[in-house]
């Protein structure tokens, strides 16, 4: 339904749906529903079902996309595809459900919409496709955020600071300002011992 609204605003818009066709499972049933909806809404020229894409091709596919839409309706604890999209510098539109809002910084790494709201989703997609400044911001901020929050180089010093506080007896596990400058000796037992 959201794509029909997008096409009314931007007739050249294209949607590529990526994922395996699992006929005979609940997922296969969902794909059938999507295909029926595409036909009912006369969106066949605007929608491609790409099927399963090998993992080694996903980064290229994400980099080439202007927008990645993750319209989850159930509470995913950590939407890995959101992180993958951000790492690729692609604007991510996700639902305000589960852990997705913790991953997306509004207007910096993407946009958030209420789950199950096709009008809001369509508006976010149209905004994304028309706002070149937002796309440039996301292309810069997304990879930085992933580096800062989802790599060992980014989280290692914070984790090390937590270990030090626990070993020192302060008991606090909340990262503090000192954690940002901690050295890279995270899993060096000798280094922890010397400094603990």
Explain the overall architecture.
- The protein is mainly alpha-helical and 196 residues long.
- Helix content is 49%, strand content 11%.
- It contains nine helices and five strands; from the N terminus they run H-E-H-E-H-E-H-E-H-E-H-H-H-H.
- It has helices spanning 2-9, 26-40, 58-64, 80-87, 100-103, 118-130, 132-149, 152-168, 189-195; strands at 15-18, 47-51, 67-70, 91-95, 110-113.
- The strands form two sheets. A three-stranded parallel beta sheet has the order 3-4-5, sandwiched between helices.
- Strand 1 (15-18), helix 2 and strand 2 form a beta-alpha-beta unit.
- Helix 1 packs parallel to helix 6 (118-130).
- The termini are far apart.
- The relative contact order is 0.11.
- The model is unreliable at 178-196 (pLDDT under 50).
> Which structural class best describes the helix and strand composition?
mainly alpha
Helix content: 40-55%
Query: Which radius of gyration do the C-alpha atoms yield?
Result: 21 Å
- Proportion of beta-strand residues: 5-15%
Bulk shape:
elongated
Q: Order of strands across the biggest sheet?
A: 3-4-5
Largest sheet: 3 strands, parallel
Please count the helical segments: 9
Mean pLDDT: 83
């Amino acid at each position: 339904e959201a794509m029909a609204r997008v096409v009314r605003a931007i007739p050249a818009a294209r949607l590529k749906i990526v994922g395996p066709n699992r006929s005979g499972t609940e997922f296969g049933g969902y794909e059938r529903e999507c295909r029926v909806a595409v036909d009912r809404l006369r969106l066949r020229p605007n929608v491609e079902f790409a099927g399963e894409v090998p993992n080694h091709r996903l980064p290229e596919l994400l980099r080439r996309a202007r927008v990645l839409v993750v319209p989850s309706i159930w509470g995913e604890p950590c939407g890995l595809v959101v992180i993958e999209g951000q790492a690729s510098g692609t604007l991510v539109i996700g639902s305000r459900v589960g852990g997705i809002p913790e991953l997306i910084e509004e207007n910096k790494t993407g946009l958030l919409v209420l789950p199950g709201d096709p009008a809001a989703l369509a508006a976010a997609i149209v905004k994304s496709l028309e706002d070149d400044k937002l796309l440039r911001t996301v292309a810069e901020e997304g990879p930085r955020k992933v580096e800062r929050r989802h790599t060992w180089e980014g989280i290692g010093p914070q984790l090390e600071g937590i270990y030090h506080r626990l070993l020192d007896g302060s008991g606090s596990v909340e990262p503090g300002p000192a954690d940002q400058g901690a050295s890279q000796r995270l899993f060096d037992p000798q280094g922890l011992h010397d400094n603990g």
